[in-house]
Amino acid sequence: MFSGKALAQNKTIELIQADVTEYDQEFVDAERVKGNVRFRQGNVYMDCDSAYFFRKQNKINAFGHIYIRQQDTLNLWGDYLEYDGDKKMAYVSRNVRLRDQQMELKTDMVQYDMNSKTAFYNKGGRITNGEDKLRSRVGRYYSRSKEFFFKDSVVLVNPEYTMKSDTLQYNTFNKIATFHGPTYITSEENTIFCRYGWYDTKNNLSQFSKGAWIQGKENKLIADSMVYNRNTEVGQAFNNIVLIDTNEKIRIQGHYGIYHRRERKTWVSGEPLAIKYIDDDSLFLKADTLLDERDSSDVRKLSAFHNTKIHKSDMQGVSDSLVYSFTDSTIDMFGLPILWTENNQITGDTITIIRKDGVLHSLKNRNNAFIASEEVPGKYNQISGKSMISYFADNKLKRVFVNGNGESVYYAKENDTAYTGANYIICSEMRIDIDSNKVDNITFFGQPDGGFYPVDQYPSDKSMLSNMKWHEEERPVLDVFIQQKKDQQEKMPESVGDLMDHTSETENQKP
Questions:
Q1: Is the pTM of this model over 0.70?
Q2: In this structure, which CATH number among 2.60.450, 1.10.3470, 1.10.10, 3.40.109 belongs to the domain 337-488?
């Protein structure tokens, strides 16, 4: 009997307070109540200035200063209320406010289901939750799970960014926003776009995927997915990464990247490839890992680690590691470097390539320096020394200075037809002048020793200097770089478009 009575009280609306109760002939089934009116249904209380109470139908039409509260769940205000006690459904309109702990919703009309503790609006709403401010045309709030679902013209404004989305899910307790469909997040630093992701506004963690990109002032990052921690300022990008710097005219791609904002470093791995656009030419760089960094003086450099290969129309090279300076276009190669320029193969413990005005100007190879070129199969012009500096004109080797332990072998021709002989010289230092890839003149310093031999009488033990090794099979070819670039482009989302001109189709998408 007690359970049945409690159940009936939970379903029946009770009038527990009113200054005046009267009956209106226009509403035969209704009681007209006025002044400090209060109703109760179970643990739900409803206050108003006046109301029509349809006791038999278990309904209320209330006016003025509507205030509905449900224990530990709901505070709802408005100017007009229609309440169905059997369905436990409230329709509140005009100057509506709904508050749940720190969250407050303002709208013109809201439908609230007491059973499911769900609020719904479709005429525009504004939500404030701490520093986060949201608005949308349509929204649904689940009080039990503290979750909002927003639809149509969704905007979330935070002091640090503004988010615009088609559909947004927002939890007012953990302050995590999950976005579905095209979404833009704009801050002073950049604009982020994705079609799915989430943002933890409490812990400053975020994830973006499905056609995600980040557009800065001078660069753009595209990847299958990205995560970023604003507290540590560390971001990661996964699969089909493309980083485009329009200021430096460079494109870096790979399958995994990690960005340390405080240290100003970006690591890229997973078949990474960098392409530096130079006038009508391109410098290709690949390795196991690439590092793009800036120092405290804002000097920027790109480093490549392990199995490094470079290719440009006027030079190709391999080494264990390499450093490219954006400031002066200098390239330093380390770890058994080999560089090819036209017919010349250049080696040493380290090689420094100096470019000016977009063309090869000079290079230095230090310790075990060596230059070789093939005259005919099996016969090589060779220059060896402790260190060398070589100068170029019109991308052709013109002059070589050898410092310390100079040694050379070169084959002399007469009128570019027949060989007149071969020259072998040892000296402290030497200068070699080259014309049309042929030795034009050699100046020897420091008691030179050696001699000139007819080709058929040249000593076989002097045909190859001690450091001589021909590496032509290791010389990088352009097809390898082009195929890698093509393969990675084919894996890109369709929305990215063609980035060969340093832009993408997504540039045309506007918030």
A1: yes
A2: 2.60.450
